[in-house]
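Sequence, please.
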């Protein structure tokens, strides 16, 4: 069991005594999790009935690559945080309702209440990378939210009460940065060198509490440690090896982290202990910053990233993924218990979602219906496109095909005497002829389609702002992957990548399962309604009133 630092950075003798008490209480909480969870549920219900339920802390948890079905698949073995959260308000038909289901656009939608077409975050490659915002302490690429457009929940909270503060922590820079948008609130991430840091967009130096946390060298302490199964081997129905797992290397338990410290601090991102480190750092920050101690409402955003690393390496049908979800459940449970030691549990609300799902590779025998998936050849696609350009006398530099979008420099094509519309029609026809391509759409035509029944058209419209619009968008067949793709992947506008959890837990929410179609962009306006704050712009999401014990008094926005 990890020792979550519920009182990291405190120096006074009285505070150290308090830390011992907190640690003792935490151990008692963990030892009796079901009874504690029941007591917390009762306190939340009592607070709701008494009306004394205004939250002082909103905890927004994003689990990178958490498919919506994972909870139900493993429910009989879950007894920690996931099990507890799923006793709240659970939306079973929830989606990241945009086309390019990647980490950056998914995280940008969580607390903004807006689709990528509104946030401007279209893909990982155009997410938070920023050479002008250097890492504090160096050692990695710079990052900032300079591409992000508009506001997020913390902005609305601060307009209502300038005392509200936020903290965001993740293994990934985009996972830490984008939930807060452009707000200059603390955001920290793990660049893979044994420490958490930030960029000079936020600060020139790290706060004392994080310096002290890094000085504990917790990532280094795991060097040489073996990842073994949490439960007896008979508890896992999955085989311990499968085709294409981890690119054919180290695909059997136990998995041993390198004993070399320099390698270990980089490789730990694909081991379950990374999530424990994220929880450790988040709790240290909550304690040092006094988040949730009132009287204002504060925000804690935590993105657990290990499920993504393990899912990419081993796939959604693997024993490794199964064990990771069990361990994540325990980690989130201890994380929640630690927060309840620090703060009044009836005044904390939780929200849980994911940035995207994941699909098995076409060759893998899977519990998911991937039989129609196939490999598509990017080289063949480029060759077909190049042949079209040559036929029309178009310069290669005037046309780009990247991230399933085709953009053209119309002025350059005009100077070359190219009939642009005819060329685009031929380009689209050539791409449609490539095996694995499901459809190629002219961007201008998408808005004329039935976006209720045609989810692909709708999700492309939700993806791209008009000023960033391409000429063509290319959609591959479900469960397909490129011929060069060796890891399990995501990114398509289909259920296997879009279907994610949307869960709320705490006094303001009415427990139950809700099967209405829901989007991740509905979460921020719902939380705004609970807090009684007004979004500062029009949102794409709406308030999920069915899950609220009391109707909203103010705002929530949406359409």
């Amino acid at each position: 069991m990890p020792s979550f630092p519920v009182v990291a950075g405190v120096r006074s003798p009285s505070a150290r005594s308090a830390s011992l008490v907190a640690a003792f209480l935490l151990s008692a909480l963990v030892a009796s999790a079901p009874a504690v969870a029941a007591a917390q549920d009762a306190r939340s219900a009592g607070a709701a009935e008494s009306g004394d339920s205004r939250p002082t802390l909103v905890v927004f948890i994003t689990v990178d690559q958490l498919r919506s079905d994972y909870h139900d698949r493993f429910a009989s073995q879950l007894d920690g945080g996931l099990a507890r959260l799923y006793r709240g308000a659970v939306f079973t038909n929830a989606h990241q309702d945009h086309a390019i289901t990647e980490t950056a656009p998914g995280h940008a939608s969580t607390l903004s209440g807006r689709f990528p077409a509104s946030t401007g975050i279209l893909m990982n490659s155009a997410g938070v990378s920023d050479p002008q915002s250097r890492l504090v302490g160096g050692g990695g690429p710079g990052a900032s939210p300079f591409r992000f457009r508009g506001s997020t929940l913390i902005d609305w909270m601060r307009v209502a009460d300038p005392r509200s503060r936020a903290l965001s922590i993740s293994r990934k820079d985009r996972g830490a940065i984008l939930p807060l948008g452009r707000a200059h609130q603390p955001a920290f991430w793990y660049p893979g060198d044994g420490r958490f840091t930030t960029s000079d967009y936020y600060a020139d130096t790290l706060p004392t509490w994080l310096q002290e946390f890094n000085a504990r060298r917790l990532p280094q302490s795991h060097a040489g440690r073996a990842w073994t199964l949490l439960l007896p081997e008979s508890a896992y129905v999955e085989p311990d090896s499968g085709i294409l797992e981890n690119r054919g290397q180290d695909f059997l338990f136990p998995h041993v982290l390198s004993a070399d410290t320099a390698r270990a601090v980089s490789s730990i991102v694909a081991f379950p202990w990374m999530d424990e480190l994220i929880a450790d750092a988040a709790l240290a920050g909550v304690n040092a910053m006094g988040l949730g101690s009132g009287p204002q409402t504060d925000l804690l955003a935590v993105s657990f990233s290990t499920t993504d690393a393990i899912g990419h390496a081993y796939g959604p049908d693997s024993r490794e993924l199964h064990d990771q979800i069990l361990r994540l459940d325990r980690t989130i449970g201890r994380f929640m218990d630690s927060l309840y030691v620090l703060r009044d549990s009836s005044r904390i609300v939780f929200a849980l979602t994911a940035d995207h799902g994941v699909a098995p590779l076409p060759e893998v025998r899977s519990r998911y219906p991937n039989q129609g998936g196939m490999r598509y050849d990017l080289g063949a696609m480029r060759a077909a496109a190049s042949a079209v350009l040559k036929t029309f006398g178009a310069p290669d530099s005037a046309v780009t095909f990247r991230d399933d979008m085709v953009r053209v420099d119309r002025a350059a094509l005009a100077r070359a005497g190219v009939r642009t519309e005819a060329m685009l029609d031929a380009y689209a026809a050539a791409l449609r002829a490539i095996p694995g391509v499901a459809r190629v759409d002219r961007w201008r035509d998408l808005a004329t389609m039935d976006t209720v029944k045609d989810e692909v058209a709708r999700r492309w419209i939700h993806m791209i702002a008009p000023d960033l619009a391409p000429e063509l968008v290319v959609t591959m067949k479900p469960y397909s992957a490129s011929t060069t793709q060796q890891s399990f992947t995501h990114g398509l506008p289909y259920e296997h990548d879009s279907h994610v959890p949307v869960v709320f837990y705490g006094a303001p929410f009415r427990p139950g399962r809700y099967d209405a179609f829901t989007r991740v962009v509905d979460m921020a306006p719902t939380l705004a309604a609970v807090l009684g704050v007004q979004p500062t712009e029009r949102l794409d999401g709406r308030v999920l009133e069915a899950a609220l014990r009391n109707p909203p008094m103010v705002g929530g926005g949406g359409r």
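The chain has a mean pLDDT of 91.
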